Amino acid sequence: MPTPFLPLTITPYGGGITAHVGRAITLDSAAILCTTNPQGIEPYTMTGTSLPTGVTIPTDGTTVPLHHIHLDMPAVGEFFMTVHLEHGSDENDLTIPIHVLEASSGEIDAPEIVTGWVGADLLAMAFYSGDCEAKQWYLSDAPDGVETAALAACGGPYAEDTHAVVALTGKPTAPGIYDAQLSLQVCCDETPDIVRTTVRMIISGGIFLGWLNSDPTIRDLQVMMYSREVLSYAFAGGVWFTLGYHARVRVVFRNGPLPRGLPKVVVNAEAGTTTTQESEVNYGRDIIDAGEFDELWLTLRQKTGDAEELVLLEKGAATALPTETIEGHVVFLIEFDVTSDALQGAMERVARAGDPQAVNSLACLGAISWVRDGERESSLNFDVTILRPVRRV
Hints:
The chain has 393 residues and is mainly β. The protein has two helices and 30 strands. It has three domains: 8-101, Immunoglobulins (Immunoglobulin-like), CATH 2.60.40.10; 107-204, Sandwich (Immunoglobulin-like); 210-387, no CATH class. The chain has helices spanning 210-213, 341-353, and strands spanning 8-10, 17-20, 24-28, 32-34, 44-49, 68-72, 77-87, 90-101, 107-109, 113-117, 122-129, 133-140, 146-149, 165-170, 176-188, 191-204, 219-224, 230-231, 239-242, 246-254, 264-268, 273-277, 287-288, 293-302, 311-317, 323-326, 329-337, 361-372, 375-378, 382-387.
């Protein structure tokens, strides 16, 4: 009497098979197991019911357990394949659902924004999610010094040979905002395809603070506490305000510039020259919390060369200092209308003077003063231009 082998199980296909339109699926009869006699399943036949038009299942009972069935699914739907097994006088049928979905090459799951600093190690991860086989990653338009790299294997879908996960790593060499394109070549049933996504990389460095200067509407004044100079990323071409307009300026106090080595003397004996290379300026990463200050003032004076320039505008506060929190950083927010009797008068005098270079603008000096721990201090002067607004005809 033959050994009974019912009931039957089909190990990887117990919950059905997921397929995609236009892409073949391959079934391996090695996955068909008999719970009581795994070695005794022969001969067998496979048949299909409710399969798409034109899809047939070949029958071959001579190659167990190496027989493969290759099916092309042409349409979305729910289909079924029946496995018919015989062993002596015993036989049984097992139906496997086939779920056919719209074709998709998958997608890349990556962070929308990656932040870093010039010269500092950057590390982020991206994952492939889909039914295709991940083959090769590519990265373009990223900061110099940043590239893709393999990560240590984690097993499962992220095993080393799957390429389903990749690292974005390196040391950026220049600050700025980079819309990098991350691409992955995949193979979908022997058909190559490309999936893509965009990763914005915001790299801080120098006077560019990613959390502050990535917003193009923000105008900043950065006070360097070591040197007392005032710098700005947003006002790269010089600080300016338009007469009669409303201005909003963020004031940030930074612990910089920090020393980074002494100037280096380079002697070229062959050319007979000696040059001095200044060390790279390091403005530091840290800012001083606005809550540490008791007063803050922005003062504009007319630039005349006199010892006592006329004060045209002074804005700030001695109490209830206006602040704003940007990504956890507390900074000052100074809002004011660019107008005063003194400023209007100075602009009119310049216009009457008839100087064609000065009719539409006024050269000023700006300064920021503050009180911290009971000590009143001030920045160095910095150039400010007041522009006359353009009149529409």
